[in-house]
Automatic annotation (TrEMBL):
This is [Ribosomal protein bS18]-alanine N-acetyltransferase. GO terms for molecular function: protein-N-terminal-alanine acetyltransferase activity. It comes from Caldicellulosiruptor changbaiensis. The keyword NAD does not apply. Its EC number is 2.3.1.266. One of its GO terms (cellular component) is cytoplasm.
Amino acid sequence: MTQKGIIRGMTKEDVDSVYEIEKLSFSVPWSKESFLEEAENSYAIYFVYEEDSKVWGFAGMHHIVDEGHITNIAVHPEKRRQGIGKALLCALISYAKENGLIGLTLEVRSKNIPAISLYKSFGFKEAGLRKNYYTNPPDDAIIMWLYLKNLKT
Ligand SMILES: CC(C)(COP(=O)(O)OP(=O)(O)OC[C@H]1O[C@@H](n2cnc3c(N)ncnc32)[C@H](O)[C@@H]1OP(=O)(O)O)[C@@H](O)C(=O)NCCC(=O)NCCS
């Protein structure tokens, strides 16, 4: 589990480490410039997991009116299955609750079983499918939502 490390907000100084994890985690990684822009974007909320003075994982979302759109979450391959992804997602959900968001949404590759399992373990539900959304390799996107407020009340 994650007792040794801390979750904190991402700064520009973290971007080199975040970008390394991004490249190790995705077939079509975001550019370093994109993360530098995110670090200065007032709508973007990013957390990192730091242990032994090193960043091992990150998660981010855009706060759009009363919704949270999760942009990415990744953990260094050497540190997976130790609860870090769970702790990072928990930080995004806590932020969303504290800021009165109605819910969180995201898109995930339909073949990405680790990520889908992680989201489902927090109560995210499948809400739609975008056919052929991804390339390299081709895949559909599953749209998921976690509602934090009862929309009927
Ligand atoms: C998805 C990811 C962030 C999970 O991070 P992690 O630190 O390994 O996850 P955790 O250890 O916190 O696991 C939390 C839960 O996720 C699920 N999970 C994680 N890895 C899994 C795997 N390989 N297979 C099945 N379920 C998995 C499980 O439900 C797990 O709970 P459990 O350990 O009690 O069974 C990580 O696999 C990753 O970085 N993947 C590459 C990037 C990516 O695909 N990001 C998602 C983009 S939408």
